[in-house]
Amino acid sequence: PSVLASTQAGGGGRRHWVSVDTRASARGGVAALIAAGHRRIRVVSGAFAASDRARQRFDGYRDAMRAHGLAPAPALCL
User: Is the pTM of this model over 0.85?
Assistant: First the structure.
């Protein structure tokens, strides 16, 4: 037996799969930092052009910052 771990649904068939909502995960992580009193939060990321997941994580960060009335900083892309 095997399990496919991916950021997208594994499709039909008999394969078992686990999907991760990358944007929601980042949003939740940033919200937890904000709840702990942190306000100066920044994303260090890989290049957005090379990874759709990097962009999704940044979008989740931006969502959380804005939801809490904080200005999101630009990503530091390496």
Answer: no
